[in-house]
Design a protein that fits this description.
The chain is of the alpha+beta class. Helix content is 40%, strand content 15%. Strands 2-1-5-13-14 form a five-stranded mixed β-sheet, covered by helices on one side. A five-stranded antiparallel β-sheet has the order 7-6-18-17-16, with helices on both faces. The radius of gyration is 35 Å and the shape is elongated. It starts with a helix and ends in a 20-residue tail after the last strand.
């Protein structure tokens, strides 16, 4: 009998040993998951002043905190509620397990687990939440093993960064910022107690949903800390009655969706962009962004108000605001309502610039020796050409079908005279104008005279780049949306500003002065703002399909476009001066209220001279000297 009993005991022992060995073989890989744990982290997009624009994440909203960043009060509160002997046991607490077993036997069901913080970390990261003896055995063995590999501080760091705290927040840092808009070192004792009480039942104790239950659990934790001698009577009394302000906000916090979409597009080469914990700092200024959005909506509503019928479904617009000197994008809005259309018209739409392209033609002429008072012929011309073996006639007209005869170059642009511009292109030479237009960065330009009237597609962002030729005194800047990217280790990648010198500052100033007059006396009058100098040019296309105003002050440039997404006319008389210029004025009137110290007057570069002729002030340079006649240029073949 004893022989059989002994054999049975040996078999049981060997079976248990085999099971333990099998378990250990299974769990050693699970230990590696925790030791080499890397959690997905939320990426934040900030404006140039460090204000939150948006959070980017895939499945878990989390900010990672090293142990050194976690305040001791959080550790104490966590230990008080979850594992008082955490710093004393080796992974499992036999006393807690014994108490849990007795409760489970008495209740006849599984009610309490007696898990340590180490065991909870293992359950959350490596094992399922299945309530079975096998899983609990694996958990215990893993806990013992993990405590020999990681320090207590490393275990706590992983636990507090991985654990779910309700409301979509993973990790203590995300929960602190989400619920209380605070960094962890600024949390009150009551706020700490609320947070550490959440992991047990995150949905039930979510303070945005069940504040009373959350406060009650927090008070129990405070009393537990007091009974352990970890907080004083005064701290307990002060905290018990506190009711913190709890914020209930969406996780993404995307307050500039067109901008965020463009950031994602520009950084699509970063595979872990939404999980790598990056900090993306933009050149965007949220104050400018809000005003730009208001200005775009203002112009949109004005156009609608002038329409006799409700045909606003396809009407839309875009606005881009740059810093002249750097090309940094301070604001960008790609449509009047992102909820209705996510299509970014600021970057993706290609619309005809119309007369807003004319300054580039005139700048080319100035750089070739024309002066701002050079005479141009504003007379009708008829062009015959062949298209698809069919003879056709093109008879361009001025707005209103008027003719001015011989006019100074400055007046031709101030009044946006189409015929004078076309005649200027013929005088200078079409090929020169065409080649120079490519230098300015315009693409897909038709090789015919219609380019004089802006008959090609360009986006508002591309137009913004081109216009820095004027606003930045001859040096064209590439628009830059992103200032820098920093990974969670603190390594920063900055984006260089790209520039291209096109013409000397004094030559560019001649065009600034002409466009300043276009705002003061010409087609851009509705863009004027009291107390600050503005230069700019309106743009309208046939039948008012597109309406532009491209303008700038001494430091800030703004390009505004309105049109219909189906390329039908906006409406009768809805020119750039009527539809777009008032929105420009609205933007700068608002901007001056928050930036009263911005530069108000344009600088006059060295080597710029002035002369008064026929009662009109003209600026000139050694290249563009005043002339009675237009310079004689070699006539070239024109292709239409």
């Amino acid at each position: 009998m004893m022989k059989y009993l002994f054999a049975l005991l040996v078999a049981l022992f060997l079976g248990a040993a085999f099971m333990l060995a099998r378990f250990y073989n299974d769990i050693r890989f699970e230990v590696d998951k925790i030791v080499h744990y890397e959690s997905p982290m939320t990426t934040q997009i900030l404006d140039r002043k460090g204000r939150l624009v948006a959070n980017l994440f895939e499945h878990e909203f989390r900010f990672y905190s090293p142990f050194e960043e976690i305040p001791p009060r959080i550790i104490e509160a966590l230990a008080a509620v979850e594992d008082t002997l955490f710093f004393e046991h080796g992974g499992i607490n036999l006393d807690a397990i014994s108490r849990a077993m007795i409760k489970n036997i008495k209740s006849g069901r599984y009610t309490e687990g007696g898990s340590t913080i180490t065991q909870q970390l293992i359950k959350n990261v490596a094992l399922s939440r299945e309530k079975s003896l096998e899983r609990k055995l694996k958990e215990a063995l893993l806990a013992i093993r993990l405590e020999t590999v990681l320090s207590k501080e490393e275990i706590l760091e992983r636990y507090l960064n991985h654990t779910y705290f309700g409301h979509g927040y993973y990790g203590i840092k995300a929960a602190a910022r989400g619920y209380f808009k605070k960094d962890m070192d600024r949390l009150s004792l009551k706020e700490v107690a609320i947070l550490v009480g959440l992991p047990r039942a995150p949905s039930f104790y979510d303070p945005t949903k069940n504040l009373e239950f959350s406060l009650g659990r927090a008070n129990n934790i405070l009393q537990r800390m007091h009974s352990l001698g970890w907080i004083t009577d005064e701290e307990l009394d002060l905290s018990i009655g506190e009711v913190p302000i709890v914020y209930n906000e969406t996780l993404t916090q995307n307050i500039a969706p067109y901008v965020v979409d463009e950031v994602l597009k520009e950084l699509r080469y970063i595979e872990d962009l939404k999980s790598g914990g990056y900090t993306i700092r933009l050149n965007i200024d949220l104050d400018y962004q809000e005003i730009a959005k208001e200005a775009l909506t203002f112009g949109y509503e004005q156009i609608k108000a002038r329409r006799k019928k409700d045909d606003s479904d396809t009407l839309n617009g875009a606005i881009v605001v740059l810093e002249n000197r750097t090309g940094k994008i301070l604001a960008m809005v790609g449509g009047v309502d992102y909820r209705k259309s996510t299509f970014n018209r600021a970057t993706q739409s290609k619309r005809q610039p119309g007369s807003s392209f004319k300054p580039f033609i005139y700048q080319t002429a100035l750089d070739l020796g024309y002066a701002t008072n050079s005479p141009l012929a504003d007379i009708a011309r008829t062009y015959e050409y062949t298209a698809n073996d069919e003879a056709k006639v093109w008879q361009p007209k001025n707005y209103g079908n008027t003719f001015s005869g011989i006019v100074p170059l400055k007046e031709a642009l101030v009044k946006s005279l189409n015929l004078a511009t076309i005649n200027l292109v013929e005088e200078v030479g079409f090929e020169r104008i065409y080649r120079k237009s490519l230098t300015y960065g315009f693409n897909n330009i038709p090789k015919n005279l219609s380019i004089a009237l802006g008959s090609f597609g360009v986006s508002p962002l591309e137009m913004s780049r081109a216009y820095t030729l004027f606003s930045n005194y001859g040096t064209m800047m590439s628009p830059r949306l992103i200032e820098s990217i920093t990974d969670y280790r603190g390594k920063t990648l900055s984006f260089d500003l790209e520039s291209k010198v096109i013409t000397p500052p004094e030559q560019s100033f001649l065009m600034i002065d002409v466009m300043r007059e276009a705002v003061n006396k010409g087609t851009g009058r509705r863009a004027r703002v009291n107390g600050i100098e503005i230069a700019g040019k309106t743009g309208s296309t046939n039948e008012n399909v597109d309406a532009w105003f491209c303008g700038f002050t001494p430091t800030i440039q703004t390009v505004i476009w309105y049109g219909r997404d189906d390329n039908t006319p906006i409406g009768h008389n809805e020119t750039g001066g009527v539809a777009a210029a008032p929105a420009f004025s609205y933007f700068f009137e608002k901007l001056l209220k928050i930036e009263p110290g911005i530069k108000r007057e344009f600088d006059v570069p060295r080597n710029v001279h002035r002369i008064i002729k026929d009662g009109e002030l003209y600026y000139y340079t050694d290249t563009s000297k005043p002339k009675e006649e237009a310079p004689s240029m070699k006539e070239e073949n024109l292709i239409f």
